[in-house]
TrEMBL record:
<feature type="domain" description="DUF7046">
    <location>
        <begin position="19"/>
        <end position="80"/>
    </location>
</feature>
<dbReference type="GO" id="GO:0005886">
    <property type="term" value="C:plasma membrane"/>
</dbReference>
<dbReference type="Pfam" id="PF23080">
    <property type="entry name" value="DUF7046"/>
</dbReference>
<dbReference type="InterPro" id="IPR055474">
    <property type="entry name" value="DUF7046"/>
</dbReference>
<protein>
    <recommendedName>
        <fullName>DUF7046 domain-containing protein</fullName>
    </recommendedName>
</protein>
Length: 86
């Protein structure tokens, strides 16, 4: 399955709709939402066992936002690599 996904992604036949958004609700240091293109909201929580939970949540949110931006650029043909390129 992994090989099929990678082959589809690198051959340019994968599609990604950049209508997702990642938001952080005010006052909740461990939670964030992923809002889909159809308006569905998915509440996610960072692991509470670490000492700095808000940093974990912020790292996850920034990574997801970077993915959304990079995937949109790749779809428009601006970048060759998905995240970073040489």
């Amino acid at each position: 399955m992994q090989n099929h996904i990678e082959k589809t992604l690198y051959s340019g036949h994968a599609s990604f709709k950049v209508s997702l958004s990642v938001t952080i609700p005010y006052g909740n240091p461990t939670e964030f939402f992923i809002i889909g293109s159809n308006g569905s909201e998915h509440l996610l929580r960072a692991d509470g066992s670490t000492t700095d939970v808000s940093c974990s949540r912020d790292t996850i949110v920034l990574t997801l936002r970077l993915f959304v931006i990079r995937a949109g650029e790749r779809r428009k043909g601006r970048k060759k690599g998905l995240f970073f390129h040489k």
